[in-house]
Amino acid sequence: MTITTEQASWFAQTFAQLADNVERAVLGKRHVVELILTAMLSEGHVLIEDVPGTGKTSLARAVAQSVQGTTTRIQFTPDLLPGDITGITVYDQKTGAFEFHAGPIFANIVLADEINRASPKTQAALLEVMEEGSVTIDGVTRAVGAPFLVLATQNPVEQAGTYRLPEAQLDRFLLRTALGYPDHAATVRILDRAAVATADLSPVLTPGALVGMSELAADVYVDALVLDYIARLVDATRAADEVRLGVSIRGALALTRAARTSAAAHGRTYVTPDDVKRLAVPVLAHRLILHAEAEFDGVAPEAVIGQVLLDVAPPTRRDSA
Fold first, then answer.
1. Are 76 and 117 in contact (CB under 8 A)?
2. Which fold would CATH assign to domain 1-219?
């Protein structure tokens, strides 16, 4: 069932209020804030590749405060164990029974700081929870709750003592983005203490209402011509000369899901090719594996996606819904 015009209008208004609220704490990063909210409403997760000190923790806390959610931060280190993330069962001598002690993964917004510093086993534990939305320990499955968003970060500059995320695990992130440094005007405002402390942010809506928004976004209409456009984009990444392994079906599904949310965020009941173009780079670029020669020549996955968008013609008409 396609959402109504009234529902789309309410969605766009609420999305803008959420972005405005988060941007009070994270100045000058409107585009990134909207990407994070798009991922959360698409029930996906985000990989942020950025240097330290750009406001990633503030961003996670601001999003959590805006939706009356809980937030945790996990500092990944080489000695971090899977149980440190998911939780463990501990024997209580007083009661004579095992009790489950929940790990930091049980929160609405989880900041996984420098995920590439943990061992592959610990990385896999986090990514399994991201995919399943639940934790199974000693045969008991426990849901982490909803909404559930993982903001994983990795430092692209310092690689000493890190474990590179395998491509199959990168594919599980809905999108990849970077905060980057604020521009001059935003920097001056930050130094002038114009940014609001995340603890002082007022919530815009409840976690239950956010889940309702996700359900509305899933009902946005996608025309067959737009689906064909997405499929042709994905096919083009696999045929590109610089690419050894192109975008998977999971990537195509992620782009479709994110495009639905983007359409609703713009007050529309249907997806346009512009929604797809807007999200193609953050959703698809990290899923490409380039040939060694292309990497040696300095070719970036973002440039490959950009060329694909130029080469693949979008549909110019829309069938009736």
1. yes
2. Rossmann fold (3.40.50)
CA distance 140 to 17: 39
C-alpha distances in Å from residue 309, one per residue of 29, 60, 166, 224, 299: 25, 31, 26, 18, 16
Q: How far is CA 1 from CA 163, 219, 253, 269, in A?
A: 44, 6, 19, 11
3-state secondary structure of 279: helix
Tokens of 82: 């899977």
| Helices (H), ranges, 223-311 | 224-239, 249-265, 273-284, 292-296, 301-311
> In the predicted model, what is the mean pLDDT of the chain?
89
If you search the block for the tokens 């975008």, which residue do you land on?
A: 247
Two tokens at 165?
A: 């995320």
Phi, psi of 15, rounded to the nearest 5 degrees: -60, -45
pLDDT per position as a tens digit, 63-75: 888 988 888 889 8
Burial of 232 (0-12, 13-18, 19+ CB in 10 A): middle
Q: Are 225 and 318 in contact (CB under 8 A)?
A: yes
pLDDT band at 160 (very low <50, low <70, confident <90, very high): low
Give, for 218, the enclosing helix (H) or strand (E).
helix 207-218
Residues present in the chain in total: 321
CA distances from 235 to 17, 231, 308 (A): 37, 6, 10
Q: Which residues of 248-268 are buried (b: 16+ CB within 10 A; e: fewer)?
A: beebbebbbbbbbbbbbbbbb
- How far, in Å, CA of 294 to CA of 300, rounded? 8
The CATH number of the domain covering residues in 220-316: 1.10.8.80
Look up tokens 């209580």; give the residue. Answer: 92
In the chain, domain spans: 1-219, 220-316
What residues contact 71, with CB distance under 8 A and at least 6 apart?
Answer: 60, 61, 63, 64, 65, 107, 108, 109, 110, 111
Percent of the chain with pLDDT over 70: 96
